[in-house]
Amino acid sequence: MIRRIVIIGAAVCIPVIVYMALTHGQPPSVSFDEAIERTQHTSESDPAAKVLVEAEVVAVESASDMMARDSTGSVFRVEYTGTAPQSPFTPGMRLQLVGHVHGGTPPLFHATQALSK
Questions:
Q1: CATH homologous superfamily for the domain 27-116
Q2: What is the mean pLDDT of residues 11-32?
């Protein structure tokens, strides 16, 4: 009897866990403008929603500050606070940036991860 309960419980729980991991495990891929929109719809007490922005480095000001261009052509400032990259950021480098947008004038993307593409 207990064996049957465990098997039924596993059959119900495992698909639910897999579904949650797939839908909530990876941040959505958006453009910089869409990331700004997502930030505008949250209250200040809520943590900023993490997103993934595919971008090309346009200019590097320092190891943690750079300018990037996304797939829609928007150029934006990136503040990178993740671990040191294996190779330094260079203009023309394609990256997947994971982080969130800080409002302000101009808004900036606070990246906590940078993945080479």
A1: Nucleic acid-binding proteins (2.40.50.140)
A2: 81
